[in-house]
Amino acid sequence: xxxxxxxxxxxxxxxxxxxxxxxxxxxxxxxxxxxxxxxxxxxxxxxxxxxxxxxxxxxxxxxxxxxxxxxxxxxxxxxxxxxxxxxxxxxxxxxxxxxxxxxxxxxxxxxxxxxxxxxxxxxxxxxxxxxxxxxxxxxxxxxxxxxxxxxxxxxxxxxxxxxxxxxxxxxxxxxxxxxxxxxxxxxxxxxxxxxxxxxxxxxxxxxxxxxxxxxxxxxxxxxxxxxxxxxxxxxxxxxxxxxxxxxxxxxxxxxxxxxxxxxxxxxxxxxxxxxxxxxxxxxxxxxxxxxxxxxxxxxxxxxxxxxxxxxxxxxxxxxxxxxxxxxxxxxxxxxxxxxxxxxxxxxxxxxxxxxxxxxxxxxxxxxxxxxxxxxxxxxxxxxxxxxxxxxxxxxxxxxxxxxxxxxxxx
Length: 410
What we know:
CATH topology of the largest domain: Growth Hormone, Chain: A
GO molecular function, one term: transmembrane transporter activity
Low-confidence stretches: 1-28
Shape: globular
Protein name: MFS transporter
Structural class: mainly alpha
Number of strands: 0
Membrane topology: Multi-pass membrane protein
InterPro entries: MFS, MFS_dom, MFS_Efflux_Transporters, MFS_trans_sf
CATH superfamily of the largest domain: MFS general substrate transporter like domains
Helix content: over 70%
Mean pLDDT: 79
Domain Major facilitator superfamily (MFS) profile: 34-410
Number of domains: 2
CATH class of the largest domain: Mainly Alpha
Strand content: under 5%
Largest sheet: none
């Protein structure tokens, strides 16, 4: 029997409300516990990767190696991170992302145990290689996983929360590591990280939802990107910029000890200044970076190279050194935001493949900087290492120019 018009309208409205309610009920809630778990993992990754910077001298003495050789503990993690960033994203296309992230965190835990207990240089390098696999695998998947943990509107806030772990570790890991290393020895610092990573591993198991594979990424997409001249130039320029940064940063402690004359307390304070400045860099880049990023691409190499040159000229002064390190630290964190913004604006048609290549490029630059800096330190002096950093910065600036050649053609 036909229903009256008003009744039909009421029924239709009820059906629409019911459908909307059903859709809202079926929509998964934001997994903020999982986001926090990933933020802690980021903090532990950064702390584990760069802790040797603040412990370089005692680690070298404890393993009966040179400071340049021990600096390669950072370069070896970069080497394996390069391979993992490319391979893991293709293999993970057929695997549940949750278990890939759990495996990466387990590798980090095993790495810390090997480094802390290392009886010789070979075991140390093995532990650092495992850490490299974790670094490359985690970073290549992190953004895509975050996008699946929260609704689309919450993705920026979730990413900021995750990168907050990086800022905290960058600010406090090095000075705390330096202080604890001075009091208890460098091995105790790595042992102290292991229970935190173990808790993080359990947290992953509890908080991360099942994340089945959605699509498989292959190498053809990556090779297609590398055939684009502007993207190729951008990757090389990014590598030179990060290579310059890490040729200096990896061997900062020997410079501060030999040139600035810093004791353990002064060293910890200077590293804290450098790290805390990173918060300012992250805030400023997130607040003021908008529109065409091309003119800003050369800014990191320009300012950080100038700070390194300033350290060479005025590094004997603690006050001047603290000023240069503050400027360097602020731009170091802003550099990641600037280059990732460039990538998002110019490779928006293949963001996952571009992200894998970008992680590989950054890790290659860390390898490049640590190797070149270590060779110059062992073969010449710490000043030669810093001069090498300035040269790499100049090459980056020359390649970038005004940034127009790194933009996608209209």
